[in-house]
Amino acid sequence: MAKKLHLNAFEMNCLGHLSHGLWAHPADQRWRYKDLSYWTELAALLERGKFDTLFIADVLGIYDVYGNSKDAALRNAVQIPANDPALIVPPMAHVTNHLGFAVTSSTSYEHPFAFARRMSTLDHLTKGRIAWNIVTSYLPNAAHNFGYSEMMNHDERYELAEEFLEVVYKLWEGSWEDNAVIIDKNNRIYSDPNKVHKIEHNGKYFNVQGPHMSEPSLQRTPVLYQAGTSSRGKAFAARHAECVFVTGTDTSIMKRQIADIRRQAEEIGRDPSKIKFFTPLVAVVGETREEAEQKMKVLSSYYSHEGAMVLFGSGTGYDLAAYSDDSYLEGPRNHVQSIAERFSKNAPNPRTVGEIRQSLNHLRGTGLYVVGTATEIADQLQQWIEETDLDGFNVRQVISPGTLEDFIDLVVPELQKRGVFRKEYEEGTTFRERLYSADSGRLPDSHPAAKYRRQA
Amino acid sequence: MAKKLHLNAFEMNCLGHLSHGLWAHPADQRWRYKDLSYWTELAALLERGKFDTLFIADVLGIYDVYGNSKDAALRNAVQIPANDPALIVPPMAHVTNHLGFAVTSSTSYEHPFAFARRMSTLDHLTKGRIAWNIVTSYLPNAAHNFGYSEMMNHDERYELAEEFLEVVYKLWEGSWEDNAVIIDKNNRIYSDPNKVHKIEHNGKYFNVQGPHMSEPSLQRTPVLYQAGTSSRGKAFAARHAECVFVTGTDTSIMKRQIADIRRQAEEIGRDPSKIKFFTPLVAVVGETREEAEQKMKVLSSYYSHEGAMVLFGSGTGYDLAAYSDDSYLEGPRNHVQSIAERFSKNAPNPRTVGEIRQSLNHLRGTGLYVVGTATEIADQLQQWIEETDLDGFNVRQVISPGTLEDFIDLVVPELQKRGVFRKEYEEGTTFRERLYSADSGRLPDSHPAAKYRRQA
């Protein structure tokens, strides 16, 4: 039987997430990102399309490597302006019943005590439909916005993230026992104080006394998303993540990445099949391939090459404005090669900067890119899943909500017809229950968070 | 002409804000605080009643002075469990058009960069209906939740708050010029980079580079609320606040407090009439006074005396469990006297602990308390405004939403008939425009935040 696939919509509370320049397209509605109705309409659309979640990316600083300046990011609205990702969730939950919401939040700059309460509040308000995309932040400007003169190095960011998770696991899983809230109206006892615990965390980065301010929500710990590409990142994902993002354009490399993380998860006692892998998807669909290609041609004419170089600059640390076309990126060969692998398929290595620049002049991005009929797109999705052991896709919007409308009206029915995508939402109240067809919204006992539980 | 009065509903994202024990009353709906529909229904009710705002209190720790333990707070659900106050605002904005939302947030424990973006996001999503209740946090457990071994002293909390405000003013008022967002589709320029500025704040407590991540919202700086009772607090309110909370049961003391803050505001060049003063109100209304008194008698039978002592303990620092009834509170005479003044009218000084304990066994709280007909309540409201120069009231709920339903159905029409409360919302898109019958949602030039503006 073919593997069931999962679909997230890939969004951000801003004008231009990854489709640089498309805000200027007359049909693009993303200029309404500041309006509640943009988000409530989008959520209703996704629930009509039986999507798993709306995934909301985030950054805490400006992309200022390209041209050694913030200017190109501002001109092209590359992830700035960008508003808070969590505050749009409750109104979307108000107009939906099944759609999950994955909120990005960094472990590097906010305090775990307040963050844990925000996530518990969201899990209460959505009745258990919250996921958290764990990031450690890679923009130097974000460090400067939060009082650091320079960014922590990559491994230290992960060390801090490990402790951050320990703190929030203690708050979510360990502070309130399952039967702490007794609501005894006769004796006027709401919570049994013997079953609500301070956590008394004293660590290298955090000291947190507790107890957690929120009573237990349906999932307690939100479903955990993470993107791990470095070896430290992959180990972190294998330990903590329930959904993992992998990027790339080469299915054989992706297959190795996925297998590697599943193997590491198994080694520490987790069920490797419980970890779901996603890659970004750009799908432009037409009734015929010619129609799809024509559509893509028009969309591409709005694409901002400068915007792509802004993103590449801060994503890789390389300022392409400082190189000539016939030069090569300087740096360790492994590093340069991994960048080439992420940004284009079957790239000859080393590539000239001119070739890299050229490869960025395209909406395709770092995942699956398909232009064609619904049949062709469904074929490609299934083929990638077979070749890589992926579980699903993060569907990027080229124009919003047009891209998702087309996908939901044309591709989703084709996937449903093939029996690889749900026709109705699975049973279960919470997102975690639906994700695993499980009968509990709680983390399994094999997850490292479970050891902080304090039950009778 | 009689002064127009303003009304805020006084709430908190929890079971028991100040009406300790009433969660057990069969008509109380506050057990639904975790449900979106509790909040959307409440917001719709308040808009029907033409209220200015829903004011949402908050704490970041547990009340653990009474009995030197967290237990009584948990048993009585005294502000724990308590969820995040900001996340309930967007769904309420979704179902209303005029109601303002005042969100409490502390300057002591969260970082101003992320906080500023959250408030800008709320101001965008509500189209300019956001206020911020600035607090510095007074619970020792909150300090322990955020990594401090002991609480900063009162004056240092205010010093830090001053710098926190400087940072957020720079982000809200100074980072993006008014015409920075040009949305030039032909030339594909969303923001003019020359008009978006880093703030480069380097201070004692914070280093923040910027720019602000959010484009300017309608109000930019939210309407500023604050409760200042200490001399440091009053000076802070005179400098920054647009709405000030004063508490007490003696109108002559309140009159002096209000006059003192207005005078201090005038001394630094602010229009003293622009500062609006509010005090809490408990109003239980009946068709006859007997009916109201009977209603109050039933409500009072649910009141938790222990809950009141929990709040008193952390609010004052005195653990009444450690005193005998015939003893006196130890400490500086001024301090002990100011506590007595806050907690009961015409109190003889010094009072025995037994007398204090007795005075806490009552729903009246620290503001205006009236039980009677709509006419009697309206009379009292007008009398307090005349005697003290107050501008309005924070209406506390005894049971929710029953207290507000009664108030809106019976008292509001009486106030409208007398011409002292609006029959329809004032013109103006934003909360600040309606509050001042002004033609701009922006802070006036005389406010200290205005000096951070960077205009051509």
TrEMBL record, chains A, B:
Coiled coil: none annotated. Keywords: Flavoprotein, FMN, Monooxygenase, Oxidoreductase. It comes from the Bacteria. Residues 30-385 form the Luciferase-like domain. FMN binds at D58, T104, H154, Y158, S230. Residues 436-456 are annotated as: Disordered. The keyword Flavoprotein applies. InterPro entries: Diverse_substr_monoxygenases, Luciferase-like_dom, Luciferase-like_sf, NTA_MOA. The keyword NADP does not apply. One of its GO terms (molecular function) is oxidoreductase activity, acting on paired donors, with incorporation or reduction of molecular oxygen. Belongs to the NtaA/SnaA/DszA monooxygenase family. This is LLM class flavin-dependent oxidoreductase.
